[in-house]
Amino acid sequence: MNDALSSLLESLAPLATNPHTVALLALLAVAGVIDYRSMRIPNWLTVAGALIGLASSTLAAGRPLDGFVGALAGLAAGFAVLLPLYALRVMGAGDVKLMAAIGAFLGFPAILYAVLFTFIAGGIAALAFAISHRASRRMADNVGAIAMSMALSAVTGTSPAAALRQAGTVGKLPYAISIGIGTVAFVVARQLGFV
């Protein structure tokens, strides 16, 4: 057992010594704490995170132009994937900008995996929140209303946002925490060779 743990820690050690990864983890930690306390992610943090991610990715690459282009593509993809959720009022603008900043660190296509891991972490957090607040029925009704509204909007070409605003909320979650957990899970899984 000690050998397995020692081997695992040895595999993860490069993450703790890599300045690029440490900067990403610091961004996630600060965003999670601020979002938990205020239910907002400030622009100064997401803009600084994006700039640091772009610079760090550029400098860390063997070919700086490739590093910059990859980081810019990751930033754009992180923003674009979550933007529809903001338009539907499912997610805050700070969450979208935070994922864009993470994309600057991870590049493309790695940001897509981080988004997937984040959605899994967010789904688990939302389910736990709903159960702990005895609102799982309301959450199931909201998910059904969202799915129906999106299907109807796809057929009719209308915006589903109006129907979604009428649904009763289960509550707000500081989604930066789910973003942080999902991103860290992806980074660890990638380091261990699972992704």
Provide structural commentary.
With 195 residues, this protein is an all-alpha fold. The chain is 81% helix and 0% strand. It has one domain. It is globular.
The gist of it:
The chain is mainly α.
What is the element layout, followed by pairings?
Blueprint: H1 2-17, H2 19-38, H3 43-60, H4 64-87, H5 93-106, H6 110-132, H7 136-156, H8 161-165, H9 175-191
Helix pairs in contact: 2-3, 2-9, 3-4, 3-5, 4-5, 4-6, 5-6, 5-9, 6-9
Features:
195 residues; mainly alpha; 9 helices; 81% helix
Beta strand count: 0
Query: Which residues form runs of ≥5 with pLDDT under 50?
Result: none
- Percent range for helical residues? over 70%
What is the string of helix and strand elements?
A: HHHHHHHHH
Strand composition percent: under 5%
**What sort of overall outline do the alpha carbons produce when their principal axes are compared?**
globular
Count of discrete alpha- or pi-helical segments spanning 4 or more residues: 9
Which structural category fits the helices and strands? mainly alpha
Largest sheet report: none
First-last Cα distance: 24 Å
- The average pLDDT is 86
Radius of gyration: 18 Å
Number of domains: 1
